[in-house]
Amino acid sequence: MNWLQQLLNGISVGSIYALIALGYTMVYGIVKLINFAHGDVFMLGAFIGFYAITVLHLGFIPAILLTMAVTSLIGVLIERVAYRRLRNSPRIAALTTAIGVSLFIEYTTIYVRGAQPDVYPDLFGDRVIRVFGATTRVDTLVILLISVLLMLLLQWIVHYTKIGKAMRAVSYDADAARLMGISVDRTISWTFALGSALAGAAGVIFGLYYTKIDPLMGLIPGLKAFVAAVMGGIGSIPGAMVGGLLLGLVETGVSALGFSLFRDAVAFIILILILLFMPQGLFGKNVREKV
Its family (predicted)? Predict the structure, then answer.
């Protein structure tokens, strides 16, 4: 039953990528911006959760809720300060700004707390559980459960709430949405808030799973989540979920076969192949752009 254990591990890792990828794909779907600072919001979420548990002595669920609230505010602040005035500028300006915001967050964090890593407290100990004959850690199942619940909650928000309908309208045609009385600025702020909240939750889950966190930890998971978003079809919420899960499964499979040194390289090989043979992604659509 080792294959089942690897499957559970792959889904757990992939769900972390999926939560981060959702922020990329939501923002791109509405403002056509690749927010490369998103991985650093994920890093901030990991530290906020760490201090919530170790300093405020909150439990796992309250720490995640607090982290999601704080990172959602950080996401809104980033959009308001860094991106809003560049909305009608060339895309290269917004992209360059995103890289600058990313570096600013990373090195401000290093300046405030230092570059040394921290170790997450072991909330679940070494407890294991047997699932269909396979032995897996309790925290693996907790990560999977929390991730699935957050993804389902996002789907419900997007499809059945007023703000979700506004997000879909702005994504389809911002000018028409504005004429129908929808506040585009408020909708974009909500999009950044939701995406950043999910990234913050992913940061806490990452800390629980991998235990070690540091100010530069957002780089590789952030890039992998971007690969997952492209794999699924950038701008597609279901695509980001599926892309993240598939990437996690592929990485875990590569490690299980004894090629763990190549697990990071595999993500970027997949990105190159997707861009070469299926640039629209698994769930994306070919869209003609007028010049």
Answer: Belongs to the binding-protein-dependent transport system permease family. LivHM subfamily.
* pLDDT score, position 193: 95
Classify residue 264: in a domain, yes or no. Answer: no
Which residues on neighbouring strands pair with residue 119, listed in sequence order?
212
Long-range pairs, 118-123, Cβ under 8 A, ≥24:
118/47, 118/50, 118/212, 118/213, 118/214, 119/211, 119/212, 119/213, 120/50, 120/53, 120/207, 120/208, 120/211, 120/212, 120/213, 121/53, 121/54, 122/211, 123/53, 123/60, 123/208
Number of domains in the chain: 1
Domain membership of residue 123 (yes or no) is yes
Are the beta carbons of 82 and 144 closer than 8 angstroms? Answer: no
Q: Please report whether residue 246 resides in a domain.
A: no
The domain containing residue 22 runs over which residues? 2-218
| pTM for this prediction | 0.90
287 located within any domain? no
In the chain (291 residues long), the average pLDDT of successive 10-residue segments reads: 76 90 90 89 96 93 95 95 87 90 95 92 75 72 88 91 92 89 92 94 92 92 91 87 91 84 84 85 62 41
